[in-house]
Amino acid sequence: MREHTSRLAGLMTMLLMTGGLVSAAQASPEQALRKLNDPNGGVFVVAHRGCHNAAPSRGLYDPTPENSLRALDRCVALGVDMVETDVRRTKDGVLVIMHDETVNRTTNGAGRVADMTAADFKRLRLRQNFGGAMSPMLTDEAPSTLDEYMAHARGRIMLNLDIKEPIHAEVAAAVVKAGLADQMLIKADALPDTPPLTDAAPFRDTLFMPMINAVKPGQGPDLAAVVTRQASGHRKIPAVELVFLAPESFVAVRQAARQAGLRLWNNTLTAVGVIGVTSYGGDLDALRAPDLVWGRQITAGVSIFQTDEPAALLDYLATRKTN
User: Fold this and answer.
1) 99 tagged catalytic
2) 48 flagged as catalytic
3) What CDD domains does the record point to (predicted)?
């Protein structure tokens, strides 16, 4: 009872009520970048496709569309460190924000993004939250181009760009052209025979993070060696993203990351079936028992979480004795 009361008091002290929206102090992108680059800088919270889920503890009782400008605004209000979003290209070469190959799940349209013009794409309207049969309700918000999304984030919050097609060069060029190379974290899969990607085109002009995916063809069993090689470049990488690592692989990767001074980025995305370290649990488990999922992983050495429940994670961190 005393522990529960203490947690509640700490949370209420931390939260600020603003017109029904409970918000926390938002760090600038420059502050978030310094935090990201500091392996001992505390837990770094990344909102998967924006803050699209309801957050009752913050007075947000309704969801908002994934990868929407509203979901980005909500992340800024909540005090999230970074927003993850997805980039594709239209038929006429415009870079746009969309996770799936098609627009069927998340909008009132149908068909492949690659078969649409940008004008066709902008006429669509986003469905609530994850869309599909679970969230079919339409909103009045159109999906964004990458330029629109970056302009909306400029000076407000860092972005992590998950590039869903082989268009990394175009995306990197757009980020540099926008003058946001230090506000946008670009990532790509690193294979065993790949030299340090951070020193290679198109990533050498951007903020970059390698991903190691245990089920990626050609990844190989020695994932720790991949981390060591990717960390050996002339340009520093802040972290390495983990995808579907077995616990025994995680131990070796953690040691390699510690030696290189890197953060470990873990995914707890049970809603979409992506987990950083298998058997460590995900968001749905964390909502029931945060100490056994987020807390356990923090103790194990994870310091970046990509989550669909950023508000719940922030609430947990606010009441946890050691972040």
Assistant:
1) yes
2) yes
3) GDPD_AtGDE_like
